[in-house]
Every structure is written in C-alpha cells, then in structure tokens.
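Re: that backbone. Tokens:
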C-alpha cells in the first residue's frame, strides 16, 4: 500500500527532486534519508520521457535496488501517514510547453471543460467497454457504414453521433490543432493539401509510392492515451480523453473490436498524424540519406529522387517498410509502386511527370457525367446514390479547378448548364 501511495506522490506536482522529496515525506510521515537519492534516480529515468502511469512508477520503485534495501531495513516502520489528495498537475514534455494547451488536471476539470457531469464522462469514454458488450445500436455512440475496398477487404466508417462529435471537435480545436504537424505531412493539415503532397515529386527520375494498411485502426487506445500523457495530462484525464477519441466496434474483425481510432471521427486524422510523427522523422532522415524527398498524405507515402535514388530504390523500399513496422504500422506491399520516367508517375490520383495534373481518365469520366447530366438530367447519372449529388459534383469540379485551373474552368461551364429539379428554367 505504501508503494502505491509513494508512486502517486512522485507523479503529483512538479517533477523536481525537491518537490518529490517533500510530497513523499508527507505521504510517509517522515523525511527518510534514502528518499532524495531515490527521487534523483526517478527524475533521471523519466527525464524527457512520456509521463508514466501509476503502475509504471510502482514498477520502477519495486525494481530500484536502493528502494528495495530501504524496504528491507525499515519494513515495519514504512506506512502511509496521509494519502495525497491534491490533483496532479500538468507535466508536458519540453516541446509541448510552447503549445498553449488547456490545463486540465482532474476529472472534474475535464467534465467542466466539456460541459458534462463526471458520470457522463464515463459514459462517453466507455473505458470498461460496457457499450461494446451491450451490442445495442441505440446505446452506441457511433453510426457504422461498411465500404468494400476495390482491392478486396472492407473499410469501416465510424461516424460519431452529434453529442460525441461536438466533444471531439472541441478536443481537436483546442488541443490537437495546437500540436504542429511534421513538415512532410500534408493530409488534414491547414494550408496543405493533396497538391502540396504531390508537388515536391514533379519531374523526378523515379517516384516510389507506398501505402499503409488499415491506417486508422492501427492506432490502439493505449497509444492515444499515452499521447495525451505526453502532452502533460494526468493519467486519469489522459485515459478519458483517449476513450472519447477511440472506439471498439461490434464487428467480427479483431482489428475493429479492440479500441482504436475510428475513421470518421473529427479527431482521428490529427491524432494519427501526431502518433506518426516519429515515423515521419525517421523516414525523412532515411530519404535524405538516399538523396530523396519524402511526403505523406494520410496513408499514402511518396519518395522521389534522381539517379542515385533510382539505383537503390528497391532496397530503400525495404528499409522504409522495416521502419514503419517498428513504429507499429504495416505496408500494403501489393500497392507499392516504383515509377520511373517514361511511365505515368501518379500519387493519390494526381500525375506528377511534368507538373501536377489530374489524371486524364478521371477528367474524361467527370466530363462525361456532366455532359450526360445536361442531356438527360442529373437523376440519370447519380449511380452512387449520393444524397446531395449536386454537392458531390461541385466538389469534384472544385478539386479539378484547384489542380488544373484551365481544365477546371471547362468542367465548371458544363456544371453551370445542368438543370436541377426545382430550379426555374431560364
């Protein structure tokens, strides 16, 4: 019992040697001589690392030779004089000190910040998996939609219901968006796009494209909770924040049954980018050592370079896959492509041989749909049963305008000629 109390005193307040000794002395009711050397070893072991859990501090204490000797020598005198009741303080890593994150140091603070009751926090975070075991759609916080992948398999879209989505949006706006993205990341980052992802690879001698398998479900809830502790939040707060941002879906696939980042939640792209930061650093360094450029858009990875990179590109792709595996991610090797000059080099649906351009087949297909909408009416072309077909087409045309303004302008003229139901005819 005294070990748990001691561990909590180590985690509360500022992680300084004097602070730890003062809190631990109050917990044990006496300033033991071995406390300061123990605190010094603890600070050295955790300096710059992710904020540990209580059980990890307990493990450190039980494995520390000096503490074990103290326990053996003073076993009958060690007891808990008082349990520490003060809330744990924010303990962010050094980099996070500059990000102006909201200070949330207790469950009560988190409930007030999200405008909830503490019991509601437990309900939405569902750390015990009660909703998953209930298997009732009415109790679930998510709507589910299964999409078949063109290459086989399935993708599960997990869309949070309105109240949970509102909480996730606040976490995104006030916490996650304050964490800077890696320079190589272009997906779901303000001011960057699929165009900025592809542009660095224009005109290169060889382009290597790699695809990550099951990107969002690859991040388990434990990793998300660790991330929030890294940002400085106490264990109880980090666990609840992680629970609100993850989900266990009632599907047979083990991939979705374990708590994971849900594809469809507002927080998932930012959390995935932050969790992949170290992998992005390692891949950037690997690319630079090979004379190549690296960018990433969600689960699409691109590398490109000149003659030196072309000679070693096959071995390079193996090294990159190993790094990703070490970081808990896996490559869909069937989608790996090495594209040299003389063939169409394309990334995320964009051609990059001479300039960033839309793929000819995609342009021709959209042009045909717009033309048929003019001739036969838009109802004849909505084969995908889009609830807002007009907005669907508008999005595709706007995308073409962003990538290739001249082609986009031609598509825009066709879009404007479509007669939509309910609109007055000129």
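Recovered sequence:
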């Amino acid at each position: 019992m005294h070990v748990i109390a001691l561990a909590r005193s180590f985690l509360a307040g500022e992680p300084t040697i004097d602070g730890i000794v003062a809190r631990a002395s109050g917990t044990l009711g006496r300033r033991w001589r071995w406390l300061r050397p123990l605190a010094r070893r603890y600070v050295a072991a955790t300096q710059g690392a992710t904020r540990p859990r209580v059980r990890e501090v307990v493990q450190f204490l039980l494995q520390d030779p000096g503490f074990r000797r103290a326990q053996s020598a003073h076993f009958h005198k060690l007891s808990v004089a008082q349990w520490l009741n003060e809330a744990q303080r924010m303990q962010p890593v050094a980099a996070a000190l500059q990000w102006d994150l909201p200070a949330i140091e207790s469950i009560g603070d988190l409930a007030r910040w999200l405008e909830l009751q503490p019991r509601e926090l437990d309900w939405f975070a569902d750390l015990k998996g009660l909703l998953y075991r209930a298997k009732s759609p009415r109790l679930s916080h998510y709507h589910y939609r299964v999409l078949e992948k063109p290459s086989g398999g399935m993708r599960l879209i997990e869309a949070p219901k309105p109240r949970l989505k509102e909480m996730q949006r606040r976490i995104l706006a006030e916490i996650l968006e304050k964490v800077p993205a890696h320079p190589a990341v272009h997906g779901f980052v303000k001011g960057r796009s699929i165009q900025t992802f592809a542009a660095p690879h224009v005109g290169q001698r060889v382009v290597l494209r790699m695809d990550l398998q099951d990107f969002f479900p690859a991040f388990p809830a434990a990793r998300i909770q660790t991330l929030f502790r890294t940002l400085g939040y106490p264990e109880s707060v980090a666990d609840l924040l992680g629970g609100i941002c993850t989900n266990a879906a009632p599907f047979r696939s083990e991939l979705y049954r374990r708590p994971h980042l849900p594809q469809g939640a507002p927080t998932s792209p930012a959390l995935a980018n932050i969790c992949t930061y170290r992998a992005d650093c390692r891949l950037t360094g690997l690319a630079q050592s090979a004379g190549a450029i690296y960018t990433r858009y969600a689960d699409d990875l691109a590398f490109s370079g000149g003659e030196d990179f072309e000679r070693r590109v096959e071995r390079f792709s193996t090294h990159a896959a190993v790094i990703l595996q070490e970081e808990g991610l896996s490559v869909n090797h069937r989608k790996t492509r090495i594209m040299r000059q003389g063939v169409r080099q394309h990334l995320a649906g964009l051609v990059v041989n001479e300039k960033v351009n839309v793929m000819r087949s995609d342009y021709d297909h959209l042009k045909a749909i717009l033309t048929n909408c003019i001739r036969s009416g838009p109802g004849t072309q909505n084969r995908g049963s889009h609830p807002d077909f007009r907005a669907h087409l508008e999005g595709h045309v706007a995308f073409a305008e962003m990538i290739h303004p001249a082609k986009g302008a031609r598509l825009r003229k066709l879009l404007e000629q479509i007669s939509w139901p309910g609109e007055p005819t000129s």
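The chain has a mean pLDDT of 91. The first strand starts at residue 142 and ends at 148.
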